[in-house]
User: Fold this.
Amino acid sequence: MFNFSRILHSSSTRLVSVAAMALLLGGAFAACGKVPTAGPLAAAVPAAPVVKLPTHITLTIVAQKPDSSIDGPAYTPSTDLTFPAHSLVTITIVNDDPGDTSLPAGSPFNIVQGVVGGTAFVDGVAYKSLSPDKIAHTFTAPDLGISVPIPGDAPAGHKDISVTFSFKTGAAGQYYWQCMDPCGSNPDGWGGPMTTVGYMKGSLTVQA
Ligand SMILES: [Cu+2]
Assistant:
C-alpha cells in the first residue's frame, strides 16, 4: 500500500527547499544590487541561424539513375541548383558515365565558356575546349552564357574524370541549365534524359 503521509512529507519538504532557495537567490540579487532584466537575457538568446547557400557543390553523372523508368544518364544528387547572388561559385562534376558522344556538327558546346579564365580542369589538368568527338556531356546554362564540355575519358596518365570550374553569379534570378551533348535516347540522342528535368537538365536559382 502507498504511504501517503511519506509522499506528503517529502512533497512538503521539497516545497520548503524550493522556497528557501528562492529566498537565498532573492537575497543574493538584493545584496549585489542587481535585478535581472529582459535586456541581458534577450541578448543571450541566439539569433535565428542565417542559412548560407553553398558556393561549392559536387554533381555526379551516373550512367543510369537508380529506380528510374527512364533509361540513360543523370546528374545526381539533384538537378535543382541554388547559389548566392554576386558570389564566386565552384562546381565539381564527377563523370561516372565515361565514353564519348560526338557533338552535332557545328555545335559550339565543345568550348569552355562563361567561367573564370575560360578554363575548366579535369583531374587538375586545365582545358579551354575539347575535341567535339571527345565529349560525354556538357553543363550549359544558356542565359548565363556558361557552358563546360565534360570529357568522356580521363586525361592520359590520370584516373578520374573530375571536372571543376568556377563562375561569378550576378543578380538574383531564375535560370535553367542542361546537357547539350546528345547522350539520351531516340536515334538522335535527344530524347529521354535529355528532355527530362532531374536527369540531364534542371533549374539554376540565383538567390539574393
Ligand atoms: Cu548528357
Observations:
- The mean pLDDT is 85.
- The longest strand covers residues 88-96.
- The CA atoms of residues 182 and 189 lie 4 Å apart.
